[in-house]
């Protein structure tokens, strides 16, 4: 979700008369750590690694985003990532609302090592994947929405900088 929101934020920044040359001035601290987090997340999804592998990758993203707090939107990415990591850690996976998923035709949830159906013992259920998004045929968490807002804002604000 972070990658797609960054792409949309970049496109929107350009459409609103932003300047792509502004990207040259951005210094992302701990960039190698962000790349490790991305590789870990891809590997965890592709290989079906346990939820803890996802948590480590998510917390690395949160750390990089927090370290880059001065970049507009980075604090949102850190906050949303921390919320997602918290609910995953407390539940041993990311709970999702099966009714909401069925309502939007989500088919992938529950077929991996990360997601699990929401149940009566779910901790912090309001932070789970409970927000249906019909356009994308999936459900998102509050953390996902916050991450997406930050991911959009980062390139949009940089490109629009005068």
Q: What's the total number of strands?
A: 4
SSE arrangement, N to C: HHHHEHEEEH
Q: Percent of residues in beta strands?
A: 5-15%
Q: Could you name the ranges where pLDDT drops below 50 across 5 or more consecutive residues?
A: none
Rough shape?
globular
Q: What structural class should be given to the helix and strand makeup?
A: mainly alpha
What is the subunit organization of this protein?
A: single chain
Mean pLDDT: 95
Ends distance: 28 Å
Amount of helix: 55-70%
**What Rg, in angstroms, do the CA atoms define?**
16 Å
Number of helices: 6
Give a concise summary.
This protein is mainly alpha-helical and 162 residues long.
Topology:
Elements: H1 2-15, H2 31-47, H3 51-67, H4 74-91, E1 94-96, H5 98-103, E2 115-117, E3 131-133, E4 138-140, H6 142-160
Parallel strand pairs: 1-2
Antiparallel strand pairs: 3-4
Account of the protein in words:
The chain is globular. The two termini are 28 Å apart. The strands form two sheets. It has a two-stranded parallel ribbon with strand order 1-2. Helix 5 (98-103) links the parallel strand 1 and strand 2 (115-117). Helices cover 56% and strands 7% of the residues. The chain has six helices and four strands. The chain has one domain (2-160). The mean pLDDT is 95. With 162 residues, it is mostly helical.
């Amino acid at each position: 979700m972070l990658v797609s929101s960054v792409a949309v934020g970049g496109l929107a920044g350009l459409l609103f008369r932003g300047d792509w040359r502004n990207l040259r001035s951005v210094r992302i601290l701990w960039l190698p750590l962000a790349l490790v987090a991305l590789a870990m997340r891809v590997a965890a999804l592709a290989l079906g690694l346990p939820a803890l592998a996802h948590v480590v990758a998510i917390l690395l993203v949160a750390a990089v985003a927090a370290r880059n707090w001065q970049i507009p939107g980075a604090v949102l990415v850190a906050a949303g990532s921390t919320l997602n990591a918290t609910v995953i850690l407390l539940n041993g996976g990311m709970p999702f609302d099966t009714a909401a998923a069925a309502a939007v035709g989500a088919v992938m949830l529950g077929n991996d090592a990360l997601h699990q159906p929401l149940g009566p013992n779910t901790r912090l259920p309001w932070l789970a994947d409970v927000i249906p998004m019909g356009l994308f045929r999936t459900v998102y968490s509050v953390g996902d929405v916050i991450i997406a807002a930050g991911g959009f804002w980062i390139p949009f604000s940089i490109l629009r900088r005068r």
